[in-house]
Amino acid sequence: MPRGPRPRRRHRRRHEYVPRQWKIVKDGPDKSRAKLPQIVANSSDGRLSADLRLWREPADSKRSSMIEVTVVSDCFRSKPDGTTPTG
User: Cβ distance 36 to 55 under 8 Å?
Assistant: First the structure.
């Protein structure tokens, strides 16, 4: 994956492809030493959250770059009393 400044393209794609039911709450580097590009989005109903990060490998690496996606669903979150919404 070629490196280089592409904030304009990313910004355009972000607004074209993110459905209206999602709100981007973070778009920038994560807090790791590698400063990975990160987008965090929450669903409008508050039941889902998605965390996307781009793991870039150097051009001379034999490994491929990858995208890490973490999704948190309301049905797996604990309520204050320790139970889950599904029981």
Answer: yes
